[in-house]
Every structure is written in C-alpha cells, then in structure tokens.
Amino acid sequence: MKNGQKKGIAAALVGLGAGAIAWWQYKRMSPEQRKELKSKVNTAGDKIKDTAKDVESSLTEKYDQLKGSAKEKVDNIKN
C-alpha cells in the first residue's frame, strides 16, 4: 500500500468518525435545537447559492466584455 493510499484511508476514517459523532450529537438534540440547526444550515445554503449566482453573473459580464473587446480588435485589424 502506497503512502498516498494510507493517507486517503486515514482521511476517510477520520471523516467517518466525525460523521458518526455529528449524527450522535444530532440525535441527542432537542427539537428546538434541531430546528435552530436546520435554520442555520438553510441560511448558509442560501448564502452559498447567492454567492454562486453573483460569481456567475460577474463571470458572464467579464466574458461578454472580453468578447466585445476581442471583436473590436479583430475588426480594427481587418480595416
């Protein structure tokens, strides 16, 4: 077994352990705590979605600007 494989297996085991602990803690939470956690997760998810949309629109704008600039340069070279 190579060193990289050992690290991958170790990381998987750590992740599995962390997941098991998180599940155990979730099961011990009161309904109010679960509701609060769900709300926090939903809020974080919404922020991630909004950020992704902002990045997408920013990239689209930048692409359109570059495309227009390149077209102008090509047109200037042709003339």
Structural commentary:
By secondary structure, this protein is an all-alpha fold. It has one domain. Helices cover 94% and strands 0% of the residues. The chain has 2 helices and no strands. The chain has helices spanning 3-28, 31-78. The longest helix has 48 residues, at 31-78. The radius of gyration is 24 Å and the shape is elongated. The model has no long low-confidence stretch (mean pLDDT 92).
List keywords for this structure.
79 residues; mainly alpha; 94% helix
Helix count, DSSP H or I runs of 4 or more residues: 2
Largest sheet: none
Shape: elongated
Number of domains: 1
What sequence of helices (H) and strands (E) makes up the elements? Answer: HH
* Overall strand count: 0
Q: What value does the average pLDDT take?
A: 92
Q: How many whole angstroms does the radius of gyration measure?
A: 24 Å
Strand content: under 5%
Measured distance between first and last alpha carbons: 64 Å
Structural class computed from helices and strand pairing: mainly alpha
Helix content estimate: over 70%
The stretches of 5 or more residues where confidence is low (pLDDT under 50) are none
